[in-house]
Amino acid sequence: MPHQRNCRTSHSQQRPRLNRSGLSDRAPTALDKRSLTSVSFQVQNFQLCGELRRTKTEVKNSLPTQKTIETEQILNWFDETRKYTPDSADYDKFYTKLVENIDAHKYSKPGRQNNYQSIEKATHPGDVGTTCTDMH
What we know:
Blueprint: H1 30-36, H2 39-45, H3 66-84, H4 91-107, H5 116-121
């Protein structure tokens, strides 16, 4: 009977280890492919790792203005009216508001100051400016 070793696997059955560069001389296995695409490997392999600096950024998602809220209410009302009673929808007012809104976004500067006081006064979206019934 041959002599048995106490170790679990013989040296011929052990997998070769990856060298320091993350690659070995053999064909990569699925486990190796996962480790090469892991987040930590990608961070270490990133060419600018440690070279990037923090910069100040502007908050571009500002609170909506009173006019924006009114426009959204009108457009939502128009959409509901158009779905259920298309003949009673006021298409002229809709397109006028739509064009005004698009033009306002085209020429607005990112990170602009908004009138927050008018928003704080409004406690409910229906309390602000034009209501849906004003469209008739």
